[in-house]
Amino acid sequence: MFLDYDGTLSPIVADPDRAFMFRKMRKTVKNLAKCFPTAIVSGRCRDKDTELLFQPVSEFLPMINEVYKQLVETTKSTPGAKVENNKFCLSVHFRCMDEKKWSELAQQVKSVLKEYPKLRLTQGRKVLEIRPTIKWDKGKALEFLLESLGFADCTDVFPVYIGDDRTDDAFKRLRDRGQGFGILVSKFPKDTSASYSLQEPDEVGFKLT
Ligand SMILES: O=P(O)(O)OC[C@H]1O[C@H](O[C@H]2O[C@H](CO)[C@@H](O)[C@H](O)[C@H]2O)[C@H](O)[C@@H](O)[C@@H]1O
Questions:
Q1: How far apart are the first and last CA of the chain?
Q2: Which of 121, 164, 172, 206 has the largest count of CB atoms under 10 Å?
Q3: Is 118:60 a contact under the CB 8 Å cutoff?
């Protein structure tokens, strides 16, 4: 079982530092892990996550820290903007900002990144994500785990990935492999390679119980 964190195991909240799994969900994930190999695959820094994640990009650390400081400085006068340092990637949140200021913030971020061609910008759920341009994503992490566990070519192993965002490339990876399936957690249709959908983390907890 491969599980995304934000918006999948924990509900989306305004403050990223307060995105916790409810006690019931923690228990469900714990029980699930007793029955199946289970991993939480998240872009978050490990201190904030509770399970396993992969961080193969340590050489980018100094650059990421430098950009973090610049982004904090550049966005400090923008009410509601929040820069989060996830150690190997950065997130610039605009959930709490006036919608009219969103594009201005995106421009500020782009202007900082101009000097850093080794970093790329993507967009998640009211968040701009900055990460190294290496070929590493949740799909790759999932594949790496399957291979490490010796499950990659097993016909009797059925990997399931549950995630909330179209940037969750693990959906596509499972479909391309023709092994297992993805479940999208969203109240609205999203263009992903997931095979099924659930509406919200509560439903995820219910189905995993
Ligand atoms: O790659 P992921 O593990 O799916 O992480 C994506 C981002 O998740 C978090 O932000 C999202 O959840 C926050 C808390 O509910 C919410 O405030 C924010 O609007 C969402 O985008 C996390 O804080 C970010 O660092 C991740 O990039």
A1: 13
A2: 164
A3: yes
Cβ–ligand 1 contact at 126 (below 6 Å)? yes
Asked if this assembly's ipTM is beyond 0.90, the reply is yes
CATH architecture of 58-132: 2-Layer Sandwich (3.30)
Q: What is the position in ligand 1's atom list of the atom closest to the CA of 125?
A: 21
Best residue among 2, 5, 6 to mutate for probing ligand 1's pocket (most ligand atoms within 8 Å of CB) is 6
Q: Spell out the domain ranges in the chain.
A: 2-47+136-208, 58-132
Q: Which CATH class is domain 2-47+136-208?
A: alpha beta
- Report the alpha-carbon distance of residue 84 to residue 86 in Å, rounded: 6
